[in-house]
Specification:
By secondary structure, this protein is an alpha/beta fold. It is built from nine helices and eight strands. It is globular, with a radius of gyration of 17 Å.
Length: 229
């Protein structure tokens, strides 16, 4: 990793735990919280992909709301407007994974500029990162709102290269989503897959350049490479 001059992270599921919303779901629907969260997240992703294919962009907040409505309808759960608002707002307060704050600081201390490239809207990215107290760790927070299409469209990955003003070969793209890692790899970024749960990588024609089990493990690799330079 000696050639790496900057790091771009996915936000949802990579730095922040999307299933931290399950506790709030559980408070409204006892013993169904995790189930709701899993369906909610899967539909949220599907709606971003489908809207991109149909060229019918709506921002991430809309995709999140629509996916929640689907999840509750699918499970036969009553979703009032008040509950919908509370649960969607919970997505603005998702928690970072425990190792993330210290790992980001270690990477910054090694001299690497950090950025987020997310399907989230400008508002959602800013709010999530600020609520976690991590705003100052990033040189750039980059949203697909700028071009109104979602990852894994190649035009999204190009945004990070433009904003960081580094050649794509010098930018490590990091995500826990295998499809996202694959899209970034096809664009030309060196990639790292964060595989916390021992998942199987998608069969989409490319493999990640690196695999780490946490952001801590990635930070160790990167800081060691910077010291060796």
């Amino acid at each position: 990793m000696k050639q790496i001059k900057g790091v771009v992270f996915d936000l949802y599921g990579t730095l922040f735990d999307v299933h931290s919303v399950a506790a709030r779901c559980e408070s409204f629907y006892p013993q169904r919280g995790r189930e709701i969260s899993l369906i909610w997240r899967q539909k949220q992703l599907e709606y971003t992909w489908l809207r991109s294919l149909m060229r019918q962009y709506q921002d991430f907040e809309r995709a999140t709301e629509d996916a929640l409505v689907y999840a509750c309808q699918h499970l036969g759960l009553d979703l009032t407007d008040a509950r919908k608002q509370v649960l969607c707002n919970e997505y603005l307060r998702i928690a970072p994974f425990p190792e993330v704050p210290a790992a980001l600081q270690a990477m910054r201390d090694s001299g690497l500029p950090l950025a987020i490239l997310s399907n989230g809207s400008i508002n959602s990215i800013d709010t999530v990162v600020k609520n976690a107290g991590l705003y100052d760790q990033f040189a750039h927070l980059i949203s697909v709102d700028a071009i109104k299409i979602f990852k894994p469209d190649a035009r999204v990955y190009a945004l990070a290269e433009q904003m960081m003003q580094l050649d794509r070969n010098a930018i490590l793209f990091v995500s826990s989503n295998a499809w996202d890692v694959t899209g970034a790899g096809y664009y030309g970024y060196p990639t790292c897959w964060i595989n916390r749960g021992g998942s199987t990588f998608d069969e989409l024609g490319r493999r990640p350049d690196h695999i780490a089990h946490s952001i801590n493990a990635l930070a160790d690799l990167l800081t060691a490479a910077q010291v060796d330079c």
